[in-house]
Amino acid sequence: AMGAVWLVIAYVVFIVIFAVGVCWLWPDYVDCTEPPRIRRALLLIWMSEGLVEVVLWGVGILKPWTLLAIFICNTWGQLDAFLRFPIVYDLDSLFTVKQACLVIIKLMSYALGFQNIGKQVGWFVLVVLCCVFLVPILWLTALPIGDVHSYHQKHDVVDMDLVLRLYYVLRKPSERALLLARGRALARRAMVAALQYCPFLEKPLIHLDPSLERSSQRERRSV
Questions:
Q1: Residue 42 in contact with residue 139, Cβ under 8 Å?
Q2: C-beta pairs of 129-132 under 8 Å, 24+ apart in sequence
């Protein structure tokens, strides 16, 4: 009986989060935010989802092999889509077909890899809603679907399949150098943000990147 109560509470929490977060706050955020920042938010959500799924496996809810299938679907599917945001593809494109197939494969992996699914149907449905469908819904609602003008706007995205990009990175030194440069730039932006919101990290961050000291000094002068 207690398990049923917790299940009802979990569903109520999910409904509230979905109604307030996905249907209200997320669209407002998308409407007033530039695509690069939306892309970073999607990547943060992607990492959070992956962490939740690792926890589900760690506590014994998912069978071990399920984690590999989930990793492939999350990386080749969601990560590939988020890295190419805000590009919109036609419904009959290979990209769209790939995304749909990977969602189906992930759903089947959960169905086959969920422990004691016969006795835990309610929890299984809730986990599927959270870990299989929620993140793709956030991505779809963030896409500028129907906004014809945005289709022709310039963006900083490489429109190439993730597997193909990895192949070029392994084969071409210039691609590896470009990837490293982007990684350094991303790491620096993350450290600057950490410096702003977590001042107690100032010394270790400046030790890692002495150039951050100038940013720290400018922050103090602005205050």
A1: yes
A2: 129/14, 130/14, 130/52, 131/49, 131/52, 131/53, 131/56, 132/103, 132/106, 132/107
Cβ atoms 61, 127 nearer than 8 A: yes
Quote the DSSP letter at residue 157. Answer: -
Q: How far apart are CA 137 and CA 25, in angstroms?
A: 14
Residues 6+ apart with CB under 8 A from 159: 84, 87
Average pLDDT score over residue span 78-88: 93
More confident residue, 33 or 180: 33
pLDDT of residue 157: 82
Q: What is the pLDDT of residue 206?
A: 76
Distance CA 68, CA 46 (A): 16
Burial of residue 86 (number of CB atoms within 10 Å: 0-12, 13-18, 19+) = buried
